[in-house]
Amino acid sequence: MKVRATAKIKISTEVEIIKTLKVYHKALQFCVDQAWKRKIKNNIKLHPFVYKKLKSKGLQSQLCIACIKQACGIVKRAKTKPIIQRASIRYNFPRSVSMKNNLLSISTIKGRIKIPFSIPDCYRKYLNWNIRESLLRIDKRGRCFFLFTFSKDVNAKSSNFHKGVLGIDIGVNNIAVTSDRQFFGKNIKQLRIKKEKLVSELQAKGTKSAKRKLIRLSGRWKLFMTWTNHNISKKIVSKSKGIIVMEDLTHIRRNAKYIKWVHKWAFRQLQSFIEYKALRKGIRIVYVNPYKTSKECSVCHNELTSRHSGFFQCLVCRHSLNSDLNASYNIAQRYKRTMCLGAVTHPNVSNNEAETSF
Ligand SMILES: [Zn+2]
Fold first, then answer.
1. What per-residue confidence (pLDDT) applies to 180?
2. Where do runs of H (alpha helix) occur along the chain?
3. How many whole angstroms from 253 Cα to the centroid of ligand 1?
């Protein structure tokens, strides 16, 4: 299985780079127009019609090929004649762009140039991965960036298989509780109640400034959720060694009782963060059916139980503990039981996390 990570690195805006981007932008529009006019969607077929013209503009042959390919891709997806607003150049690594001794060597219309380049510490761990893609991009404010996509093969199935199984319960009182007795996000419930109170007050007011404040508040709350989810997932993954078992939330959504709180916190986002962070370490993720994980006793598996203010007690064996912890035990056990019965749940892991920021 392949895992990917993208590093966005700012580079200095040299005149040659800006000029190359401009020429490339025009060349791309030219290729798109030609492909559209001639109804060509294949880059090899388009090549003889445009290549010489692109070369005459000063583009290096690698960039010409990239441009033709990109144009065909755009025409393939387009329903009306495409107009390119901003072009980004896909560089072939290491042919048309390379890194050496903190210098980035890029081919431009004025030949190859070398610019100083430093990789931030947070991306250094990816340097021994393979580079799959490198993209030169300019943003609205005219700042230039290089986007490197790193990839690595991980063998999540064979490594660590069946060693330590970690069940994770997600819930209202605690955002996440793991079966090795870790509790995360205890104070979130209070914050959420406070926020909801403020929202209802602002909604009741209904003035223009109240509406503006509401928008700001919702934006800030979203950022806070993402930040918290990143923190929790980082802590969970850093301590786990074997398999991580979580509840399949698509089942939960069908259950009317849970619908209310599932929408109040980005739980699916938390799961996806745990997923991609785990995959990078070669840890496998398994999803189980959450049916009655919080009602069942984790010792005798009876359903004759009582739950009161976050506390769980079994009415049969008198076992008592925190109700979220009990659920996380059940989740881990559910996976172990299916393994013993031979009915292996297929891991629902995604390997597409190129868009995920870190
Ligand atoms: Zn019991």
1. 87
2. 15-38, 43-56, 61-77, 188-205, 208-239, 249-252, 256-262, 267-280, 323-341
3. 27
